[in-house]
């Protein structure tokens, strides 16, 4: 697909042609990205595709080998201090101190941002209330649940009230309840006008939160559009075949090779795009000729999982 970006004048984050190599391995091969002010862009990609490397460049933690990027209107290579003043970052691993209380952590971060003692206390109290941590403010972080720690980590990134927020897989490892709670916080931040770039391995998360989704693979952005538009690109429906026996899966895959099925051996499933009203009948005929029985047949509307698989497979 053609990747269309907004003009840099309305973007809080804008990158063109970012290149980065480590040793002889090229991780980014010309990444283009834009995040309009006040919106949330979800950056998806397989492990090792360059999501975190992109975030590290945009947050000035890593210098690109080529290309340009601005964050908050400031060049990430020439105006690093100005970029850092404009952003907040929640990395993959929590940066809070488990030996301190929640309140002490936030006051410590406030001190690092050169807030006075009185202002630091006031800002910590505001954030503890906003992130539903006031009742646990004086408890050591070592006693917090995973969800509470991630909310505290996000609160710490909001100490300087940044206009732009980078969230690098913020809900990884959280249980569904804690993930839903953090989604609520992210929606609130977005509603208040914060611009957010989110990397995630949870496609449902991107579908729930993002205004736009960018898929990165092979060091490049291979798609950039709204979740609904991306799902429309993979077709109206997916055909899912549940086979009776696991040993039939390879034979079924060979029989349907022309349809490019996604094969899940463990689940005894084959998934393929439904191309026409006759496609279902034709598929079942092929399986019958191959001596394969379908235990159950489903029709599914496209999901971001389908988008992700199709784009990352095609670009691999």
TrEMBL record:
**Source species, domain of life:** Bacteria
Q: Which positions fall inside the ABC transporter domain?
A: 13-243
Q: Provide the protein's localization.
A: Cell membrane
Q: Which GO terms describe its biological process?
A: daunorubicin transport; doxorubicin transport; response to antibiotic
- UniProt entry tagged with the keyword Chaperone: no
Q: Known InterPro entries for this protein?
A: AAA+_ATPase, ABC_transporter-like_ATP-bd, ABC_transporter-like_CS, ABC_transporter_ATP-binding, DrrA, P-loop_NTPase
Q: Name one GO cellular component term.
A: plasma membrane
What Pfam families would the database entry show? ABC_tran
Kindly state which keywords UniProt assigns to this record, in alphabetical order: Antibiotic resistance, ATP-binding, Cell membrane, Membrane, Nucleotide-binding, Translocase, Transport
UniProt GO molecular function: ATP binding; ATP hydrolysis activity
User: Its topology with respect to the membrane?
Assistant: Peripheral membrane protein
Which Gene3D superfamilies does the record match to this protein?
P-loop containing nucleotide triphosphate hydrolases (3.40.50.300)
Q: What is the similarity comment for this entry?
A: Belongs to the ABC transporter superfamily. Drug exporter-1 (DrugE1) (TC 3.A.1.105) family.
Descriptive protein name: ATP-binding cassette domain-containing protein
């Amino acid at each position: 697909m053609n990747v269309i970006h907004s003009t840099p004048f309305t973007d809080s984050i804008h990158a063109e042609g970012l290149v980065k190599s480590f040793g002889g391995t090229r991780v980014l091969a010309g990444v283009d990205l834009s995040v309009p002010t006040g919106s949330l862009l979800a950056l998806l990609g397989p492990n090792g595709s360059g999501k975190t490397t992109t975030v590290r460049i945009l947050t000035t933690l890593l210098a690109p080998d080529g290309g340009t990027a601005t964050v908050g209107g400031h060049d990430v290579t020439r105006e690093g201090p100005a970029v850092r003043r404009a952003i907040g970052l929640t990395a993959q691993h929590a940066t809070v101190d488990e030996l301190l209380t929640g309140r002490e952590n936030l006051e410590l971060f406030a001190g690092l941002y050169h807030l006075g003692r009185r202002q630091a206390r006031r800002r910590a109290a505001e954030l503890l209330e906003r992130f539903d941590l006031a009742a646990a403010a004086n408890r050591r972080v070592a006693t917090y649940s995973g969800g509470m720690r991630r909310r505290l980590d996000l609160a710490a990134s909001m100490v300087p009230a940044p206009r732009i927020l980078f969230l690098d897989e913020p809900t990884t490892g959280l249980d569904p309840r804690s993930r839903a709670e953090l989604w609520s916080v992210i929606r609130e931040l977005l509603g208040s006008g914060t611009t957010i770039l989110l990397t995630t391995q949870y496609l449902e998360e991107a579908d729930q939160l993002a205004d736009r989704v960018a898929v990165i693979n092979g060091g490049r952005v291979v798609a950039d559009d709204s979740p609904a538009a991306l799902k429309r690109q993979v077709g109206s429906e997916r055909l899912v075949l549940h086979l009776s026996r696991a040993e039939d899966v390879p034979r079924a895959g060979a029989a349907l090779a022309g349809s490019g099925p996604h094969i899940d051996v463990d689940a005894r499933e084959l998934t393929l795009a439904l191309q026409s009203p006759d496609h279902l009948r034709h598929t079942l005929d092929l399986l019958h000729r191959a001596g394969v029985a379908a235990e159950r047949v489903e029709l599914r509307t496209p999901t971001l999982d389908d988008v992700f698989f199709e784009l990352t497979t095609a670009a691999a």
